[in-house]
Give the backbone structure.
Amino acid sequence: MTVPALRLNHALLAVAGLLALLAVWPLLPAREPPPLRSAPPPAPPVLASLPPAAQFAAVAARPLFSPSRRPPAGPAPTVTGGGIEQHYRLIGVVTVGHERRALLLEGTRRFEVAVGGRLDGFTVSRIDHARVVLASPAGQVVLPLRQTAK
């Protein structure tokens, strides 16, 4: 045999082996991919404590949604008697992640309360984007978010 004939035989043998491998390939058992590792769920955001209400005195002096940027004329109304819905006023809701806090007004005192907080014998059961639901053994009371007087 000559050298060119040997090269041709080797090439034909390599091609035949490759074709045989391709013919057997579908019959080989399939390997399953390794299971995916799921990442741990992200930690919920931490709600930082709010600064004291006195730091927001400029906001109270110049209400953002009042056309004149001035509070309503006259002294702040004082409520005597009546239900809890006349005693407290919802002035805003702060939401961070899944945690919400309601900003309430009692006369001239501003404070915040979270779900589960207590308020004159009521428990804050839910805080929505425009209302707070207070629950007591006597029933439920809803404090709606009200627009400022124009």
